[in-house]
Specification:
Elements: H1 22-44, E1 82-86, E2 89-92, H2 93-100, H3 105-108, H4 112-135, H5 142-164, H6 171-181, E3 188-198, H7 201-212, H8 217-224, E4 235-239, H9 246-254, E5 265-267, E6 270-282, H10 287-312
Antiparallel strand pairs: 1-2, 3-4, 3-6, 5-6
Helix pairs in contact: 1-4, 2-4, 6-10
């Protein structure tokens, strides 16, 4: 598992955010080294199930190939120079840049020449450990092989979804969704209400009588309500009509602010006494305010569609724990050209 999930391109030139006094450079490098080491040790504590594999870095942006250079010396003048070598495995500047971006936020603003040697050393450590693992034949250990295969499958899954789903979330699609849901929509009425939930109609009527006698609604809610929001005095916050069950919404939106409903209303949880605190009209969000949410909604829809397309193109079978095939669920859509394996899953 890589300590740094390489996924961010490095700029062609690295700006120096600020300069440190020479006496502090060593201190900062020591601090960065400690942070990087902590990340490294922490990664060892992550189980294979907990580990998340990030996208795999693409080939280096340099046109140079390992066979065309001296693997010991850095390449001068290249857009993405080689800045290290471990047993002939080249380390490129872009790898250091991407790795540095995964450092804690408070370290990313340090000058690049402070972070650079520490991160480069960590990449060298990483490659040395990988080489040792390969020399020891750990790739062929069954448990390690399963983890490698699982990581590969996660990467392939993400790559497929990136190719199939992400391109569908275009600016035009986001704008179209905004136009359908929010453009030219009038302001929406919202109500802030409190309620008290009790078990019987008789209890609810007693609550109403106590309120008419001058009892404070919030205090009474804390004392007798069965609902978890009793700790907040029964305060439900603001909500729109379509966000609550019909009878509750009908009562809440018919009452003026400050008034308690004359009769309780009932649902499967019990009897509710309702008080309206205030009302307001809320304008629909602007495109900049909501575009991030709309983008996520479209992406979720595109991912689900990609999953459905994938499932429609494969043969799916489900089995009970005793090995018998389930009678429900998707059946064969085509006749398999070869017998399906009955081997136990790896």
């Amino acid at each position: 598992m890589l300590l740094f999930p390489f996924h961010r391109p490095v700029p062609s030139g690295v700006a120096m955010p600020f300069c440190l006094p020479s006496g502090l450079v060593g201190v900062c490098r020591s601090f960065v080294a400690t942070a990087v080491l902590a990340l490294c040790v922490g990664s060892l504590l992550v189980t294979p199930v907990q580990a998340q594999t990030g996208p795999v870095p693409g080939p280096p942006t340099s046109v140079l190939t390992p066979g065309a250079i001296d693997p010991v010396a850095p390449i001068e003048g290249a857009a993405n120079p080689v800045i290290g070598s471990v047993d002939g495995h080249l380390i490129y500047l872009s790898e250091v840049g991407r790795a540095a971006q995964t450092l804690p936020e408070n370290l990313r603003g340090l000058p690049f020449d402070t972070v650079f040697p520490v991160v480069l050393d960590r990449l060298i450590d990483h490659q040395a450990l990988v080489i040792m693992a390969k020399r020891a034949g750990l790739e062929d250990v069954p448990e390690v092989r399963r983890e490698i295969e699982a990581a590969t499958e996660r990467i392939l899954e993400g790559a497929w979804l990136s190719r199939e789903a992400a391109p569908k979330v275009t600016e035009a699609a986001v704008q179209a969704r905004f136009n359908r849901q929010f453009a030219n929509r009038p302001a929406t009425e919202e109500v802030r209400a409190r309620h008290i939930l009790v078990s019987s109609e008789a209890e609810a009527m007693k609550v109403i009588d106590d309120l008419r006698a001058g009892a404070d609604f919030a205090t009474l809610a804390r004392a007798v309500s069965k609902d978890p929001d009793r700790d907040k005095g029964g305060d439900l916050g603001f909500f729109r009509l379509e966000q609550v069950w019909p009878a509750f919404g009908e009562l809440a939106f018919s009452l003026p602010p400050g008034q308690v409903g004359n009769v309780p209303i009932r649902n499967e949880f019990g009897w509710h006494v309702v008080k309206i605190e205030e009302k307001r009209f809320v304008a629909p969000p602007s495109f900049p305010e909501i575009q991030g949410q709309l983008r996520q909604e479209l992406l979720a829809m595109a991912v689900q569609q990609a999953i459905e397309r994938a499932r429609s193109q494969v043969i799916i079978r489900r089995f009970n724990l005793d090995g018998s095939e389930l009678e429900t669920g998707p059946r064969f859509k085509v006749t398999p050209s070869v017998p399906l394996s009955t081997d136990a899953p790896r």
